[in-house]
Specification:
six-stranded parallel β-sheet, single chain, 6 strands, alpha/beta, globular
Length: about 140
């Protein structure tokens, strides 16, 4: 059984809804899950988890939220080498460039994407929810 963390920032509740679906997927596969907001998580906690799902919506000019999430994530970068992670988030405009940039940055730091990243425009619909449940099950496996 893998020990998983879900770390997210949500302004409107859409990314939090995504996190809850991932949590449900992990639980359904027997995984051990702890959820954190970006403000509750630190680099010191990284080694305590087998896999981490990071979630952040697109902000501004398709970038990560910069007051809580980005500083926390920057501190975690040294621990990303060979760490299985998953990325998710919502957006209201654009085409998902923030996620492509984020994935590339993680891969450059040596992280292993444990599941294809999941993005959704606005609130997650049933199709996205199914994909998030599958992500959770994959993270638990």
């Amino acid at each position: 059984m893998k020990k998983a963390a879900i770390v997210f920032w949500s302004g409107t509740g859409n990314t939090e809804a995504m996190a809850l679906s991932i949590k449900e997927g992990i639980a359904s596969a027997g995984g051990d899950i702890t959820m954190y907001t970006a403000g509750e998580f630190s680099v010191d906690q990284m080694d305590g988890y087998d896999v981490i799902a990071f979630g952040c919506p697109s902000m501004g000019a398709e970038e990560l939220e910069d007051m809580e999430f980005e500083p926390m994530f920057l501190n975690c970068i040294p621990k990303l080498s060979d760490k299985p992670i998953a990325l998710f988030g919502s957006y209201g405009w654009g085409d998902g460039q923030w996620m492509r940039d984020w994935e590339e940055r993680c891969l450059q730091m040596g992280a292993r994407l444990a599941h294809e990243s999941v993005i959704c425009q606005d609130a997650p619909d049933d199709s996205i929810r199914d994909t998030l449940l599958a992500m959770g099950r994959a993270l638990a496996g």
